[in-house]
Design goal:
- The protein is α/β, with parallel strands linked by helices.
- The protein has two domains: 66 residues, Orthogonal Bundle (Chemotaxis Receptor Methyltransferase Cher, domain 1), CATH 1.10.155.10; 183 residues, Vaccinia Virus protein VP39 (Rossmann fold), CATH 3.40.50.150.
- Helices cover 40% and strands 17% of the residues.
- The chain has a seven-stranded mixed beta sheet, with helices on one face. Strands 3-5-4 form a three-stranded antiparallel beta sheet.
- The longest helix has 15 residues.
- The radius of gyration is 20 Å and the shape is globular.
Length: 275
């Protein structure tokens, strides 16, 4: 029976290897063996959307698209942007108790969230910054490789069930509550959202910033990378950490086992030595 767009058949080993090499080379994502069913299920949606007859035909189209948009869409569908407001609360406690006091004398304060996902983390960071310093002194750079996630982050609209655990004072101070056909939705207030610059960025590609940061948060991204890719990504980010600045990673992530300039502070927190 011929394969159709509705029934692309099994993802053959050669096609899986092609996907694996492509996302590793372009995004550093390490698709280990055993992920075939997950990849097949997620790519099947792209096949249905584009009416492709096979995985191979779809991958040919990705390779032929010189704009890179098809490749970005492929990476989007293979990455999970799970996140939540105030995820890993120990990081926010460390910010308030250890980092912010060292920044109090500055006129302007900017941090970098290097894995913005759908926005919950960068908004949690900017709310915490505004609580501490006021809106007039703070900014946040928020980057991610996923254009799909960045669109959601820029919109800043979340259903009520995504706001569980958010302090009540944040709901009234930083969100607009939806009414009518928008009931059950909350949107980050525009004057707060404007404090964040959302930008597309691939952590394994060369990138430049015009400034350094006292804190970079890159949480739950390196779990997708193998150790050599983790080393390259961490060392690139470290170039933009101020002396004495901190790097946050996810609690399931560690910087042990490869060369990098940061000192361990506590689980999931590292510091650039002061000069």
């Amino acid at each position: 029976m011929l394969e159709t767009a509705a029934d692309p058949g099994r993802l053959k080993p050669a096609a899986y290897e092609r996907v694996r090499k492509l996302v590793y080379e372009k995004a550093g994502i390490d698709l280990r063996q055993g992920k075939e069913e997950l990849v097949s299920a997620r790519l099947a949606k792209k096949l249905r959307e584009g009416k492709f007859s096979s995985y191979e035909e779809y991958l040919d189209q990705v390779a032929a698209d010189k704009t890179g948009e098809s490749l970005t869409a492929l990476i989007d569908v293979l990455t999970t942007n799970f996140t939540s407001f105030l995820r890993e609360p120990a990081h926010f406690a460390f910010l308030r108790e250890k980092v912010f006091p060292t920044l109090a004398s500055r006129g302007n304060i900017e941090l970098w969230c290097a894995a913005a996902a759908t926005g919950e983390e960068p908004y949690s960071l900017i709310f915490t910054m505004v609580d501490a310093f006021g809106a007039g002194r703070v900014k946040l750079l928020a980057t991610d490789i996923s254009t799909r996630a960045l669109v959601a982050a820029r919109t800043g609209i979340y259903p009520a069930d995504r706001l569980k655990g958010v302090p009540n004072e944040w709901l009234s101070k930083y969100f607009l509550r939806g009414h009518g056909d928008k009931a059950g939705l909350y949107q980050v207030r525009p004057e707060i959202a404007r404090l964040i610059e959302f930008r597309s960025l691939n952590l394994i590609s060369a990138f430049q910033h015009s400034r350094s940061f006292p804190l970079i948060s890159c949480r739950n991204v390196m779990i997708y990378f193998d150790r050599p890719t983790q080393e390259r990504a961490v060392n690139r980010m470290a170039q933009f950490l101020e002396p004495g600045g901190h790097l946050f990673v996810g609690h399931s992530e560690s910087l042990t086992g490869f060369e990098q300039p940061l000192h361990f502070v506590q689980p999931a927190i590292y510091q650039m030595p002061a000069r």
